[in-house]
Design brief:
Largest sheet: 6 strands, mixed
Distance between the termini: 67 Å
Structural class: alpha+beta
Number of helices: 11
Strand content: 25-35%
CATH class of the largest domain: Alpha Beta
């Protein structure tokens, strides 16, 4: 496909100007016709010189993308021309995906090869198709842009944040899990010696093994393993409030990413992990199992799950949970509550979990609401207006109501994690380690 460039348009102005003069001066007819013919000949010759495909393109990328992550895509370009080509490349993305680096621009000498990279950030999970590659380069005389489409349809599956799980696994193999979260003080949590490792500044002083330190010539700490073979059940509210977005992801996706990360940590430590997602009906149920395959089952069961614009029915979901999960389990519930009806239901289902299970309720903090409370003046530095004060008062009332709900849940014996969505994963892992360290299960 050939696209006229601005230079060709400006050259076409010359015969147009002559054509405008012809009605007033007949002698300009032949110059006009010669200008038309000359422009046509030059344009055709330039187009014919660009008719062949002068670039070959190939693309490499993974078949599995992580939602909200920058997933790398590699494109190899090779010039088949004898002249230098200034190339612009883009890729047809699927819906709910962005690539801020596109279009890419590169200059290739004759016969030169280069590799370009860009990153695709998907905002929705599911099965999609990464589309064709499209490149443009100019003709020898610069009158045309040659646009070439390279068919490159490739199915991709967008999963929850599996990149974070891979990063954790890499750090775990290097005994560096503590680089991703703070080290908690294990109050009576040392149950069985596991291994010796290098001492870090986050370790307790009493964990130093002085005999091993003297033998190795460097500070060495004792690492204890926590009790294993316990059960975790992740329960995800898939109702309308979980469709709210922050940081480019829905609250449901934040919950799902944290679920898979903690599931990997727990399974690696020998615990059983399962999942239940619900809206009006139960969307998915995976019974608690152990091992690496358990996390894979969670990923397979959840990658096509999405929150629905309906009122959730937690009583139905927890009825299924109590019926199918009989052993004592840490039940991690991700939900959002903003009204009395939902709060009453949450209190009721929480009571129904005792004494068999241990509930940990994750509530997402409204970052914008708390920002209103911290606002003391307008951006221009002027005093707050009556409307600003009213808005701030309403925000304070909602936050106070939420704090009262949290106190009521704690009085029933539930553990609460009230956290910003961006801080969810490390906070959740630390709370899980605290539960294990205190032998609450």
């Amino acid at each position: 496909m050939l696209i006229p460039k601005r230079s060709l348009v400006w050259l076409a102005v010359v015969p147009l100007v002559l054509a405008a003069i012809v009605p007033f001066d007949d002698s300009m007819l032949w110059p006009m016709l010669l200008a038309d013919a000359g422009l046509l000949v030059v344009a055709v010759i330039d187009a014919l010189a660009t008719s062949a495909a002068l670039v070959t393109v190939s693309r490499r990328t993974a078949e599995v993308f992580s939602i909200g992550r920058a997933n790398p895509v590699t494109v190899e370009l090779r010039s088949r021309s004898r002249r230098r080509l200034n190339i612009e490349l883009t890729c047809e993305l699927f819906e709910h995906a962005v690539a801020d680096e596109l279009p890419l621009k590169v200059s290739l000498a004759g016969g030169e090869r280069t590799v370009l990279r860009f990153r695709v950030v998907p905002r929705r999970r599911g099965a999609f198709v990464l589309g064709d590659l499209v490149i443009r380069y100019q003709s020898p005389l610069g009158l045309w842009n040659k646009q070439v489409r390279f068919p490159a349809h490739q199915p991709v599956r967008v999963y929850p944040d599996v990149q974070a799980v891979r990063t954790w696994e890499l750090l775990a193999r290097q005994n560096r899990q503590h680089s991703m979260m703070r080290t908690i003080r294990r109050l009576g949590g040392e149950s069985e010696f596991e291994q010796l490792r290098d001492y870090s500044r986050d370790d307790e002083f009493r964990s130093i093994d002085w005999k091993a330190t003297a033998r190795r010539g460097s500070l060495t700490a004792r690492q204890y393993q926590l009790e294993s073979n316990q059960s975790l059940m992740f329960v995800l509210d898939g109702g309308r409030l979980m469709t709210g977005e922050t940081g480019g992801l829905s609250l449901f996706d934040h919950a799902l990413n944290a679920t898979l990360m903690l599931a990997h940590v727990a399974a690696r430590g020998g615990d059983r992990v399962g999942l239940l997602s619900y809206a009006e009906q139960v969307q998915a149920f995976v019974p608690p199992e152990t091992g690496r395959k358990a996390v894979q089952r969670l990923i397979q069961a959840s990658y096509a799950l999405h929150p629905e614009l309906v009122e959730p029915d937690p009583e139905r979901a927890f009825g299924v949970l109590n019926l199918r999960v009989r052993t004592r389990t840490l039940v991690v519930l991700f939900t959002q509550v903003i009204d009395e009806r939902a709060a009453t239901e949450l209190l009721r289902v929480t009571r129904g979990l005792f004494p068999r299970h241990l509930p940990l309720i994750v509530l997402f903090r409204d970052v914008g609401m708390h920002a209103l409370l911290e606002r003391t003046a307008t951006p221009a530095g002027a005093e707050l207006t009556d409307l600003d004060l009213y808005t701030r008062g309403a925000a304070a009332e909602l936050v106070s109501w939420r704090d009262q709900l949290i106190r009521s849940l704690k009085n029933q014996g539930a553990m609460i994690l009230d956290v910003d969505p961006a801080d969810l994963t490390p906070a959740l892992i630390n709370r899980y380690l605290e539960v294990k360290a205190r032998h609450l299960l």
